[in-house]
Amino acid sequence: MSTEVTFASLNLAEPILRAIGDAGYTTPTPIQLKAIPQVLSGGDLLAGAQTGTGKTAGFTLPLLHLLSAKPIQAKAGQPRCLILTPTRELAAQVEESVKTYGKYLRLKSMVMFGGVNINPQIARLKKPLDILVATPGRLLDHVGQKTVDLSAVEILVLDEADRMLDMGFIRDIKKILALLPKQRQNLLFSATFSDEIKELADSLLNNPGFVEVARRNTASELVEQTLHLVPQSQKRDMMSHLIKANGWQQVLVFTRTKHGANRLAEKLVKDGIEAAAIHGNKSQGARTKALAQFKDGSLRVLVATDIAARGLDIDQMPQVVNFELPNVPEDYVHRIGRTGRAGSSGAAVSLVDAEEIKLLKGIERLIKREIPRVAVEGFVPPARIEAEAPRPPRPQNQQRRPQNQQQRQGQKSGQKPQARPAAEAPRKSGKPMSEAARHQAMPQAALFSPKPIHRGNRGH
Ligand code: AMP
């Protein structure tokens, strides 16, 4: 007996199946197989799935089906379905999916997010609207200006709910929930389940179905991983060298800070390599342009912070580089998951400084393998760097007095002490932290974990 399940067997309407065919999909992904019937049944849903699993179609396809099965004359500024996302990029991509899968339907959609002029959004809201994809802050701006009316929402989707909480959107979300009709269908998608997410799910969802797909840690098996031990001060030079020596043509580079992303992109450009940085401080126009150029191959290197990269629909990258290791080991798996997707092979290289060895050990524990150290000619021999790594903590009575970080760095081969990148001390400027900086400075909740999840000090 064949166990192959098709989209048609999920009972989606014909115009939706046609659009799926046009998109070139033949088989539903596991999250789609599990989520679509649940959403079609009309009940609430709690879904555990990351970007890259096909989760967007997992909620978009059935909600298009439900809305089109109950045709109601679309009204201006009064959506029947509200999809909330944490970032602008994700909002844009989700609405793109709504348009792609709904192209043979009469449903009308729009996307709204901050950082761009509000007036075109106000103009669009004066026309009929069924599906609204929004980031919370800008949606509330519209609520304040009475340009949107949420009293007709039949279906609410919270996409990447964990990220929304990490970014401090909980109050905004609660304000928005209070504006929705009581009677509605709620779908909550999250890659991780912290206590906060569980609390939100409990208050939001009625007797929800639960679906979950295994987290995508297979990347660590598919992707060829290596690392170069290198002092922070030499990383930018090494980056230039690696790109040129290996002839990399399309590289996604992750930095920990926005400032670091800018500095690296500037350095690469100076060295004759087309590069751009993408992060929360860049205008929407600049981000969209950089992404488009990167996708079409005219931009060789895209330097991104985790938050900017999250949700970006850039798949099957041949090369990913961790310019700095992420603070949370799971983020390493997310990052390298950008390459080697869908069975294609990819490579991930990490540049690791002595200060990052502890992070490295955490990553190696998570992926259950040691990442091969590869020496690069002309750079400090790796053995020296590993030897200089801070030692793991000893039992209390044996603990040495910790050396001040700058002292330790100053001792390294006469190197001058380095300033730490900006986002590590984001409040020094006296300005409030931006959404993105706040996120970057915050620990990410652990992925699905049988262990109790530690809740970071969120401070808001
Ligand atoms: P998502 O997890 O929603 O960000 O989707 C990840 C990627 O998978 C997107 O590029 C989708 O276009 C693609 N995708 C979604 N569903 C399918 C499917 N059933 N078959 C093949 N690709 C898909």
Please summarize what this structure is.
This protein has helices spanning 14-23, 30-40, 55-69, 88-101, 119-125, 136-144, 161-166, 170-178, 195-204, 219-222, 232-246, 258-270, 284-296, 306-309, 329-336, 357-367, 382-388, 405-411, 435-440, and strands spanning 45-48, 75-76, 81-84, 109-112, 128-129, 131-134, 155-158, 185-190, 209-212, 223-229, 251-255, 275-278, 301-305, 319-322, 346-352. It is an alpha/beta fold and 460 residues long.
Task: Indicate the topology.
Elements: H1 14-23, H2 30-40, E1 45-48, H3 55-69, E2 75-76, E3 81-84, H4 88-101, E4 109-112, H5 119-125, E5 128-129, E6 131-134, H6 136-144, E7 155-158, H7 161-166, H8 170-178, E8 185-190, H9 195-204, E9 209-212, H10 219-222, E10 223-229, H11 232-246, E11 251-255, H12 258-270, E12 275-278, H13 284-296, E13 301-305, H14 306-309, E14 319-322, H15 329-336, E15 346-352, H16 357-367, H17 382-388, H18 405-411, H19 435-440
Parallel strand pairs: 1-8, 1-9, 3-6, 3-7, 4-6, 7-8, 10-15, 11-13, 11-14, 12-13, 14-15
Antiparallel strand pairs: 2-5
Helix pairs in contact: 2-3, 3-4, 6-8, 15-16
Bound molecules: adenosine monophosphate (AMP).
Helix-and-strand structural type: alpha/beta
Low-confidence stretches: 395-460
CATH superfamily of the largest domain: P-loop containing nucleotide triphosphate hydrolases
The major β-sheet equals: 7 strands, parallel
Helix content: 25-40%
Question: From the alpha-carbon coordinates, what is the Rg to the nearest angstrom?
Answer: 23 Å
Strand content: 5-15%
Bound molecules: adenosine monophosphate
The beta-strand count equals 15
Distance between the termini: 55 Å
Name of the top-level CATH class of the largest domain:
Alpha Beta
CATH architecture of the largest domain: 3-Layer(aba) Sandwich
Mean pLDDT: 81
Please state how the strands of the largest beta sheet are arranged side by side.
Answer: 4-6-3-7-8-1-9
